[in-house]
Write a structure and sequence with these properties.
- With 185 residues, the protein is of the alpha+beta class.
- It is 31% helix and 30% strand.
- The N and C termini lie far apart (40 Å).
Length: 185
Amino acid sequence: RVAPQISSNEVIQFGPKSTSTSISGVTSEFLMVRSFEISKGRFINDQDMIGAKNIVVLGPDLSNKLFQEKESLGENVRIKDQSFEVVGVMEPKGAVFGNNQDENAYIPLSTMVSRITGKDPTYGTSLSFISVEAINEKSTQAAKFQITNLLRQRHKIIRDDDFAVRSQKDALKIVSTITGGLTLL
């Protein structure tokens, strides 16, 4: 499974309350590949993608920040001067590399491209991040190799890569190294 993603820092507003947050354009595969869960409502589906609908799923901390104790489902928030209907709220996920994922918002990737980033998808969409789920742990290295080769071909790369491919084990090693260094200090 593959879950492409484009992220951008934007101001999100509900009534007089506003905050700057990471807005991610994603597909329905995001939940499964990234092991996220919905707390209330629903997530982005294929129909939202096809119609480039103005719907949004909020992280729980972002929902609390904007709505406090009030129910957010069915309400409209503003992102880049456009109205988005809140259709879901995520389960808490926590922080990764200093980024509190519970403060993020998720919209259809097609909506992100056409209405938020303003990038012309004529020649393909420039993605921030692609999450891929391998068939099993044993096939992770083979998947990394195949993904690297495919991206090198698509980007027409002869020398240095303009991307990085990392497994969860690679990410954990990086975190362990940083944590170990900080502990030593």
